[in-house]
Protein backbone atom coordinates (compact mmCIF):
# COMPACT_ATOMS: atom_id res chain seq x y z
CA UNK A 1 0.00 0.00 0.00
CA UNK A 2 2.83 2.40 0.91
CA UNK A 3 4.58 1.63 -2.38
CA UNK A 4 1.39 2.18 -4.38
CA UNK A 5 0.73 5.45 -2.58
CA UNK A 6 4.28 6.64 -3.34
CA UNK A 7 3.96 5.82 -7.03
CA UNK A 8 0.52 7.47 -7.17
CA UNK A 9 1.86 10.57 -5.42
CA UNK A 10 4.85 10.74 -7.77
CA UNK A 11 2.55 10.35 -10.73
CA UNK A 12 0.21 13.12 -9.58
CA UNK A 13 3.11 15.41 -8.68
CA UNK A 14 4.57 14.91 -12.12
CA UNK A 15 1.27 15.66 -13.79
CA UNK A 16 0.74 18.81 -11.78
CA UNK A 17 4.08 20.30 -12.87
CA UNK A 18 4.21 19.11 -16.45
CA UNK A 19 2.22 17.07 -18.89
CA UNK A 20 5.52 15.54 -20.05
CA UNK A 21 6.25 13.69 -16.79
CA UNK A 22 5.09 10.11 -16.53
CA UNK A 23 6.51 7.76 -13.91
CA UNK A 24 5.70 4.07 -13.95
CA UNK A 25 6.52 1.50 -11.32
CA UNK A 26 8.88 -1.33 -12.22
CA UNK A 27 5.97 -3.79 -12.37
CA UNK A 28 3.89 -1.60 -14.71
CA UNK A 29 6.89 -0.88 -16.91
CA UNK A 30 7.71 -4.60 -17.15
CA UNK A 31 4.08 -5.44 -18.04
CA UNK A 32 4.03 -2.83 -20.79
CA UNK A 33 7.51 -3.75 -22.05
CA UNK A 34 9.00 -0.29 -21.54
CA UNK A 35 11.84 -1.01 -19.12
CA UNK A 36 14.92 1.24 -19.30
CA UNK A 37 17.69 -0.40 -21.31
CA UNK A 38 20.86 -1.09 -19.31
CA UNK A 39 24.02 -0.75 -21.44
CA UNK A 40 24.56 -3.87 -23.57
CA UNK A 41 21.16 -5.37 -22.66
CA UNK A 42 20.07 -4.76 -26.26
CA UNK A 43 22.47 -7.59 -27.21
CA UNK A 44 21.25 -9.98 -24.51
CA UNK A 45 19.15 -13.10 -25.06
CA UNK A 46 17.13 -12.12 -21.98
CA UNK A 47 14.15 -9.78 -22.09
CA UNK A 48 15.05 -6.15 -21.29
CA UNK A 49 13.37 -6.51 -17.86
CA UNK A 50 15.28 -9.71 -17.03
CA UNK A 51 18.54 -8.21 -18.23
CA UNK A 52 17.92 -5.02 -16.20
CA UNK A 53 17.25 -7.04 -13.04
CA UNK A 54 20.37 -9.19 -13.58
CA UNK A 55 22.60 -6.19 -14.33
CA UNK A 56 21.26 -4.35 -11.27
CA UNK A 57 22.04 -7.34 -9.02
CA UNK A 58 25.53 -7.64 -10.55
CA UNK A 59 26.09 -3.89 -10.13
CA UNK A 60 25.18 -4.00 -6.43
CA UNK A 61 27.40 -7.05 -5.80
CA UNK A 62 30.42 -5.65 -7.67
CA UNK A 63 30.18 -2.14 -6.16
CA UNK A 64 29.38 -3.20 -2.60
CA UNK A 65 31.83 -2.04 0.08
CA UNK A 66 31.04 -2.48 3.75
CA UNK A 67 31.63 0.95 5.34
CA UNK A 68 34.62 0.95 7.73
CA UNK A 69 32.70 2.91 10.38
CA UNK A 70 29.81 0.44 10.17
CA UNK A 71 32.26 -2.45 10.58
CA UNK A 72 33.96 -0.91 13.60
CA UNK A 73 30.60 -0.23 15.25
CA UNK A 74 29.20 -3.67 14.36
CA UNK A 75 26.31 -2.27 12.31
CA UNK A 76 24.15 -4.41 10.04
CA UNK A 77 20.66 -4.22 8.56
CA UNK A 78 18.65 -3.75 5.41
CA UNK A 79 18.46 -0.42 3.61
CA UNK A 80 15.67 0.12 1.11
CA UNK A 81 16.38 2.59 -1.68
CA UNK A 82 13.61 4.01 -3.86
CA UNK A 83 14.87 5.58 -7.08
CA UNK A 84 13.88 6.35 -10.63
CA UNK A 85 15.61 6.05 -13.95
CA UNK A 86 14.51 9.44 -15.26
CA UNK A 87 13.54 10.28 -18.83
CA UNK A 88 17.18 11.14 -19.57
CA UNK A 89 18.30 7.67 -18.42
CA UNK A 90 19.96 8.90 -15.21
CA UNK A 91 19.38 7.69 -11.65
CA UNK A 92 17.59 9.89 -9.13
CA UNK A 93 17.35 8.64 -5.53
CA UNK A 94 13.94 9.45 -4.06
CA UNK A 95 13.95 7.90 -0.59
CA UNK A 96 16.15 5.79 1.65
CA UNK A 97 14.77 3.83 4.59
CA UNK A 98 16.13 1.44 7.23
CA UNK A 99 19.56 0.79 8.63
CA UNK A 100 22.05 3.20 10.14
CA UNK A 101 23.06 6.34 8.25
CA UNK A 102 26.48 4.82 7.44
CA UNK A 103 24.73 1.94 5.70
CA UNK A 104 22.31 4.32 4.00
CA UNK A 105 25.19 6.37 2.58
CA UNK A 106 26.76 3.25 1.09
CA UNK A 107 23.44 2.14 -0.42
CA UNK A 108 22.96 5.58 -1.99
CA UNK A 109 26.52 5.50 -3.36
CA UNK A 110 25.90 2.12 -4.98
CA UNK A 111 22.63 3.21 -6.58
CA UNK A 112 24.03 6.54 -7.80
CA UNK A 113 26.83 4.61 -9.52
CA UNK A 114 24.31 2.92 -11.86
CA UNK A 115 25.39 3.79 -15.40
CA UNK A 116 23.38 6.08 -17.66
CA UNK A 117 21.05 4.08 -19.86
CA UNK A 118 18.37 4.43 -22.47
CA UNK A 119 15.20 5.47 -20.60
CA UNK A 120 11.94 3.57 -20.72
CA UNK A 121 9.73 4.77 -23.56
CA UNK A 122 5.99 5.11 -23.94
CA UNK A 123 5.75 4.95 -27.71
CA UNK A 124 8.56 7.27 -28.73
CA UNK A 125 8.31 9.40 -25.57
CA UNK A 126 10.90 8.81 -22.79
CA UNK A 127 9.43 8.21 -19.33
CA UNK A 128 10.74 7.72 -15.80
CA UNK A 129 10.49 4.28 -14.18
CA UNK A 130 10.52 3.85 -10.38
CA UNK A 131 12.36 1.05 -8.57
CA UNK A 132 12.61 -0.11 -4.96
CA UNK A 133 15.74 -2.08 -4.03
CA UNK A 134 16.60 -3.57 -0.63
CA UNK A 135 20.31 -3.87 0.13
CA UNK A 136 21.18 -6.08 3.10
CA UNK A 137 24.35 -5.44 5.09
CA UNK A 138 25.48 -8.50 7.05
CA UNK A 139 28.48 -7.90 9.27
CA UNK A 140 31.40 -10.07 8.12
CA UNK A 141 32.77 -12.52 10.68
UniProtKB/TrEMBL annotation:
It is a single-pass membrane protein. Its main location: membrane. The keyword Transmembrane helix applies. Keywords: Cell inner membrane, Cell membrane, Membrane, Protein transport, Signal, Transmembrane, Transmembrane helix, Transport. GO terms for molecular function: energy transducer activity. InterPro entries: TonB-dependent_transducer, TonB/TolA_C, TonB_C. One of its GO terms (biological process) is transmembrane transport. Residues 1-18 form the signal peptide. The keyword Transport applies. It is found in: Cell inner membrane. GO terms for cellular component: plasma membrane protein complex. Residues 51-141 form the TonB C-terminal domain. Belongs to the TonB family. This is TonB C-terminal domain-containing protein. It comes from Aquimarina muelleri.
Amino acid sequence: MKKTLLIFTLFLTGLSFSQDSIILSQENANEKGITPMWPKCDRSRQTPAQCFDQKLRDHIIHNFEYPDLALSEGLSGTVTVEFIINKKGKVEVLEVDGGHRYLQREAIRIIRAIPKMDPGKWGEKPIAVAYVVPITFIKPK
